[in-house]
Input
Amino acid sequence: MTHLPDGRYVDDAPYDPQASIQQLERRDLDAPNWILIWRKFKTHKLGLISGIFLLLCYLMLPFAGFLSPYTPNERQSDHLYAPPQSVQWFHEGEFVGPFIYPITAEADLETFQWKFVPDTDTPLPIRFFCEAGEYNLAGLIPSDTHLFCAPEGATLFLWGSDRLGRDVFSRIMYGAQLSLTVGLIGISVSFFLGIILGSMAGYFGGKLDWFINRIIEILRSLPELPLWLALSAAVPSNWGPVSVFFIISVILGILDWPGLARAVRAKFLSLREEEYVRAAEMMGASSGRVIRKHLLPNFMSHLIASATLSIPAMILGETALSFLGLGLRAPAVSWGVMLNDAQNLASIEIYPWTAIPMLPIIVIVLAFNFLGDGLRDSLDPYQQ
Output
């Protein structure tokens, strides 16, 4: 070591690149677990993009009313099955800003259908931060302010209107509140039952293990769709939309827990023989503490990956039940309820925009699958 005049010390040893690499590797191994997970997750581009997209979607849910130009059940009786209106920026070569051309309905005597003709001579600017239909911000705060609204005396159907003249775009925004939330509630119920029953069966074994396994086998042997239909049909028809929503979420969670419970049981059967578990038991730790502090943390990576892969199954389950008319019902708005109105193939052929609610379902399910793949790969940071 050389002492400099300013008081610092400089190492005189020659530079060893191999030693520097070893120091960096040791620093990586000594880093906290969440840092290692984040470093590896960042390299999974699809998972990272999907995670950011899903985060934005869930942050948007409380503001669905603000982001929608109409309320979900607001009808325009003169514009049934109106086609999507495009937002224009230039009129006759001049920049006007975001505007639309008003449309009027005219009867087509050849096809006996209504056709909508735009008035290309009258550009109407879109209003921003305007007052329109009332809604509850985050479900609690009454408000009537919208980010953008239709011009006075015109309509603004970005994705067309349905058979009752309701804006498809606004209904998809409102429907996301139920369709995306049902997965979170369902997975909470599923994880609560799966972790508790699976850990009890795997840790204690014996008759309790035998009994829980028989329940799992019975539930897994029942056909899934008929069981959904039977449980959903048992919901009283006079219940409100909120009650039906919660009971559907609970039903989906109850039917999903056996798979998770079996995975937890199998993992606990192998972990309970480990030396650190035996040491904790010999030191007097209770069974609950051993499960919480020693067994579950070693299984957490699988649980997180399972959650992200199970949520889309919950969303598809609610969509299927609502599509068949046995899940959420009007006036509740979800993507499944919207697709229930698009069962007629002839209607979709004539008015293809009524099938647009399929697109957010596909995108959300793919995003959850990509996120689950990224988490599954990154939750084991030491795996190359």
User: Anything to note?
Assistant: The chain has 14 helices and nine strands. Strands lie at 2-3, 9-10, 88-91, 94-100, 103-108, 113-118, 124-125, 127-137, 141-149.
